[in-house]
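Let's practice the habit of predicting before peeking. Look at the sequence and jot down your guess about where helices and strands might fall. Then scroll down.
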Amino acid sequence: MKAFAELYYKKSILLFLLMPIAIIYGLIVKIRRWLFQKNILKSYRMPVPVIIVGNITLGGTGKTPLVIAMVELLKSQGFKPGVVSRGYGCKVKNFPYNVSMNSSAADAGDEPLLIHLRTGVPVVIDPHRSYAAEYLLKQFSCDIIISDDGLQHYALQRDIEMVVIDGQRKFGNGFLFPAGPLRESAKRLTEVDFVVINTLDNFTELTVNNNPHKKKKSYLMNLIPGTLYNLKTKHAVTDLKLFEGKKLIAMAGIGNPERFFQTLEQLNLSFEKQAMPDHYQYTIKDFQIDPQVNYLMTEKDAVKCQAFATERMYYLPVSANVSPEFEYIFLEKLRAVK
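Done guessing? Here is the structure:
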C-alpha cells in the first residue's frame, strides 16, 4: 500500500485506470457535502468556536505541529482550548476517550497522545467529533475547540477552517482518490479561511501563490527542530559528537519521511534512512541488538516506543513556526466569531 501511495507523487499511467472510480468518489464527496449544507444530513453547532486544522490530501502534511502551535497561541491569549480527534489507529473501544499521561500510543493513537503530552490541554477521541466536543465542554469547560483533522467531517460545524499543505509534495498528481492523493478537489482551498504551506525554507515572503485554481493568500510554516533527547533517560543531547564512530539509523513513520531526514541532514548528521508507513506501530523487533547502533526518530514515533525504550534511542521534537501576520489575522477572525 505504501509503494502504491508513492505513485501519487510520480507520473504513473497505471493510475489513469482508476480515474472512473475517482470520478465516482468525487461525486460522492460533493453530494455528501451538499446534503450537510442543506441540513438533510444532521450537523452539530457547538456553543463555542470550533477550529478545524485539516488537509485535502491523504497522509501527513504537518497538521499536528500546527495544532500544537495553535493551542499554545490560544493559551497565551487566555483561552481554555481542548482538542478533538478521530483517533486514527487507536485501539480503545469506549468513546469518548479522554487521553491522559498514562495513555499508550496504541490505545490513544500517536498524534492525540503527542498533542496532550506537548500541550497539557485535554484531548478527547471519538469517531463522532461532536460527541468529543460535548465531552470537552462538560468535563473541562473549554471555551474553544480545535479539531485535529476533520476538514471533511461535516457533521461538526466549524467557525474557522485551516488547511495544511506539504510544500514539497503539494497535490501530487492532482487526482482524486484512488487515482491520486486528493480527498477533495484543490478548489476547496478557495473556500477555507487559511491555507498554510509547510515548507523547509525560511520565511522569505508571507504569501505564496500555490493554488492552481485561484489566487489565494497563503502563509508559510516551517518546522524548527529542537534538541535531541534520549528516549530512555529524557536527557538532552548537548553535543552531537556523542554519535561519532557509531552507526545511526533514522526511522520515520510519518506522512513524508524525507522531510525528517532532510532536517537531520541540516544538523550535519550522517545516518542510514529507514522510512516506515505513516502511523507505523513499532515493536522492539524493529531495533537491532548491536550496541553500536543508535536510532533517531521523530517525536511522533517516540511516543510509540516508550514502553520498550533503550538508551540507544533518540528523538527530535519540532515546533511549527508561523508568521506573526498569520497569528494576528487568525486572532482577529476569532474575535469576530466570538
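How did you do? The first strand starts at residue 50 and ends at 54.
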